[in-house]
Structures are given as C-alpha cells and as structure tokens.
Amino acid sequence: MAKVWEDREIKFDVQNIHKKLHNGERVLDVIDSVEDTKGNAGDIGRVIVTNLRFMWYSLTNPKFTLSIGFFCIVTMNAKNVISRLRANTEALYILTSSTKQRFEFIFTDYGTNPAHFASIFEIYKKYQTTTLYRELKLRSAILTDGQLNILKHEQVYKQMSGIYNLSSDQGNLGVFIITNIRLVWYADANESFNISLPYMQIISVKMRESKYGLALVIQTAHSAGNYVLGFRIDPQEKMEEIFKEISSLYAVYSETPIFGVDYDNTVKEKKEEMLRIDDIPEIDEATSNEINSKFTMYLREGDSNSRRATLSYCKELGFAIEKLRDGFSIKDLWNVMGDAEEK
Questions:
Q1: Which of 65, 109, 197, 240 shows the smallest number of beta carbons within 10 Å?
Q2: How many Cβ atoms sit within 10 Å of the Cβ of residue 314?
Q3: Which pTM does this prediction carry?
Q4: Whether residues 91 and 199 fall in one domain
C-alpha cells in the first residue's frame, strides 16, 4: 500500500495540502478564525483536524500551509492569552519532534467559540489510545485468557494453530490469526511471546524458500523496524491458501485503511456536510494580498501608549473617532475584505 506519512511527518507550505487526503483519512473537525502566530503572524486561517493529523492553511495566502502528524506531537496545551485583535482569547501550543528536529507552534483563536480547541485534544487522545491499528507491537497485552482482544471495526477471518514462527533457530510453535486490520501470532508455550502487525506496516507478503523449507515471508515498513518475518505452514497447499487470503485482505485494506480514530462531533451538526474536502472555499489568489492587510497593518503599527489619542469628527461614520494616522482612510479599515467584494 502507499506509504502513510500523514501522521508521521511535518510539512510546510505545500499548496492545497488540505485537499490531498490519504485513503482512509477523514476530516473530523474544522475550526475557523485561527492564526498561526509563530509562523505567519497576522494571517487568519483555518484548521482542519483529521484522524491522522492537524492542518492549518491561510485564508489570505494559499502558499502558507502546515501539516503536523499526530505521531510527531510531543506535548500540546492551551493557554489564555491577551491579543491585539481580541482582548482575551486562547492559544494552542504544540511541541513536536520529527527527524531529529524539534518545532514549537502557536495557534491563536480569534473565533467566537470559547472551547474552540477542545476537539483537537479529544481527537489526539483517540489517536494515542488506538496504536494497535497502526503500529507493530511485540510482546504486548493483546490476549485475555487465550483469546484475542478484538478491536473496534475488527473482524477475525481465520485462526490456525500449529504455525511456526521462524524468528529463532529452532522455530516456535503457535497460533496465527488473520483479521481485516492486522496479523497476529502468539506462542503456545508463552502467550506473552506474540506479535501484532497491522497491514499499514506491511511492505510485502511473499512465499519463498528458507532454511526450514518454503515459508510465508512478511516484510515490515521502515517505521516498523524493517523486520523480515517468516512463518512455516504445513501442508504447502494450506500455506498457498493463507498467502492468497492475506494478499486479498491486504489489497482491500490498502484501498480503505482503518486507522482506528473515531470522533463524533456532536457540537457541529453539520459534520456530514461540514467539509467535503473538494469543496473547501478558496480565495482568489489575485486579490488575497488585499484581504485584511491594511486593517492588520494598522493594528500592528499602533501608536505608543505614552501618547494620548486625538479625537476628530468623522463625516463618513457620523461620530467622533481617534484621528487616523497618515496613509490610512476609513475605507481601508472598514472594508477589511478589500475592493474585490464590491466588484
């Protein structure tokens, strides 16, 4: 299957990255009016949270995008802050680690929902507690009284005893289980000697010769340690049957992966229509530089607090306002969407 990088990498400024979802990746929440405070201060954008990652993209400049895989997140917390555009608001701090680099991201909420970032924490927690769907596990607690702990959405297709795991010199006899999400093997003599291998972490499934004769050989991805796992299944006809069944299930999984992260967004009733990924509204790049730019510039270049503001009568508004600084007009500050809206 195509490599699943979305939860394991951080990508900057990939245009339209929010429209390029992996098979099985689903949008779980959309949060508007969020600023990438550390990377693109003054740029208001939109956050998209999927079952694999956190994405932000600018509504004023389509070149500015960000994708943070959940696997890369080290810590995440929210703090109350004071901002210029809005007195009291919330900021989301995300510390990440990826390919020996550490990044800190800060996102400031300028929306009206007081619990804007709550869903992100809930979805990330779901991701952390569903690792069996996505990661190779060795010697883990996957059995209870000799029975496999079945995951949500998991279906067992076959369970066979008398299967040799060829990882040691003499081989270990055990039980082999095939489901729609993973392959499981555990030793008869010691259930804690086991392996749970999701299809997501499989590179290839083959039959080839080994020092024990013809074996079922499974190679794992780099993210799962680049292991080569061998299993001896007798007779050969049975091995061929198992090989075909695993190959078929692996092909089906590649088309429709199950990543295990479920989130029911009851706050937004529009969840179904909330975001068809191809229908995300885009702002015309030709006019995007005008959007909010003068208004933001005016706020960021505020007068020194040591000087008292001078009031003057404004004919356009009909009341007294703080005297505007040179180079700015009422239209610049009032019509924050620029002239494009009037055409």
A1: 240
A2: 14
A3: 0.76
A4: no
- Domain end residue (candidates: 233, 255, 277): 255
Q: What residue type is assigned to position 106 of the chain?
A: I
- Together in a domain, 76 and 153: no
Whether residues 251 and 152 fall in one domain:
yes
Inside any domain, residue 120: yes
3-state secondary structure the chain: CCCCCCCCCEEECCCCHHHCCCCCCCEEEEEEEEEECCCCCCCEEEEEEECCEEEEEECCCCCCEEEEEHHHEEEEEEEEEECCCCCEEEEEEEEEEECCEEEEEEEEECCCCCCCCHHHHHHHHHHHCCHHHCCCEECCCCEECCEECCCCCCCEEEEEEEEEECCCCCCEEEEEEEECCEEEEEECCCCCCEEEEEHHHEEEEEEEEECCEEEEEEEECHHHCCCEEEEECCCHHHHHHHHHHHHHHHHHHHHCCCCCCCCCCCCCCCHHHHCCHHHCCCCCHHHHCCCCHHHHHHHHCCCCCCCCCCEEEECCCCEEEECCCCCCCHHHHHCCCCHHHHC
pLDDT of the residue at 210: 85
Give the residue numbers spanning the domain of 178: 135-255
User: Taking a C-beta distance cutoff of 8 angstroms, is the pair 297, 329 a contact?
Assistant: no
Say if residue 61 is in the same domain as residue 121: yes
Q: Are 172 and 105 in contact (CB under 8 A)?
A: no
pLDDT, tens digit (0-9, with 9 covering 90-100), for 187-239? 999 999 999 999 999 999 999 998 888 999 999 999 999 999 999 999 999 99
Q: Which band of pLDDT confidence, cut at 50, 70 and 90, is reported for residue 2?
A: confident
Q: How many domains does the chain have?
A: 3
